[in-house]
Amino acid sequence: MQGKRGLVMGVANDHSIAWGIAKACAAQGADLAFTYQGEAFGRRVTPLAESVGSKLVLPADVEDEASLDAVFKSLEDAWGSFDFLVHAIAYSDKSELKGRYLDTTRANFARTMDISCFSFVDIARRAAPLMRPGGSMVTLTYAGAERVMPNYNVMGVAKAALEASVRYMAVDLGRDGIRVNAISAGPMRTLAGSAIADAKTVFNWNLTHAPLKQAIELDDVGGAGLYLLSDLSRSVTGEVHHVDAGYNVIGMPQARDLDKDLVGKGYAKVAKSRNGKGKPAADNDTRAAAAPASASDAAE
């Protein structure tokens, strides 16, 4: 990354995924610029930026066109051109991330999509003319874009739109030699992750059931970001790169990873409700009995 310059948008603190990526790039010689929204975040981001030698720390509000114009004018004045972009910006009303997706309000749906998805498009449109051939853009997504995740609701829909945008943008910008990819990290203890209800339960579930049985660390995602932003991935674009200890390949956890008693109780409850007599469903349906019996044997 020697001689490369990049803009990192969305660092909140030293636990942020964007910061993990920034550190990895800086360690390999990249020059960085950072943005922040609001003075409170500015006070957090500025010392982090200084720790990696960055003097470009700019205010940015993705809902304000003039603010974004000012960011890229400052970059053009300081650098002329640059090589990569990290987009780590998302928002939704915390109160609507629990309960039913059906109860999402129109206002929150629109704002969630605007900040979490459209902001990447809006930023990329400004960034692309300043990027040199071989440039790279990376955004952040999550498994809730692909499958239903608890307490993720409209954010999952916004992330699905973001992933689709990655593919369309990869085609649009490919002719200019610019690549566009996303990183889908597993649950992590970040400021954004903590906003999700029952975050600890989700974290522990993934830790238990992911094939590698390990927590996702900031350096894991930082390394993936470094790969996607560097020339090592020069033929990779339009991809969603999972950094989740393999959780994305799981359809159902292995029987040995399930709570045997919980599975048994759940099966008994369903069986009782279906036959209405409180007797095991196996009396009437041997096919239904086969799977739980096998699961219990395997769990032992």
UniProtKB/TrEMBL annotation:
GO terms of biological process kind: fatty acid biosynthetic process
CDD domains on file: ENR_SDR (cd05372)
Pfam family, one: adh_short_C2
Entry-linked InterPro entries: Enoyl-ACP_Rdtase_NADH, NAD(P)-bd_dom_sf, SDR_fam
Pathway(s) annotated for this protein in UniProt: Lipid metabolism; fatty acid biosynthesis
Record-listed E.C. numbers: 1.3.1.9
Assigned protein family: Belongs to the short-chain dehydrogenases/reductases (SDR) family. FabI subfamily.
Protein name: Enoyl-[acyl-carrier-protein] reductase [NADH]
Encoding gene (name): fabI
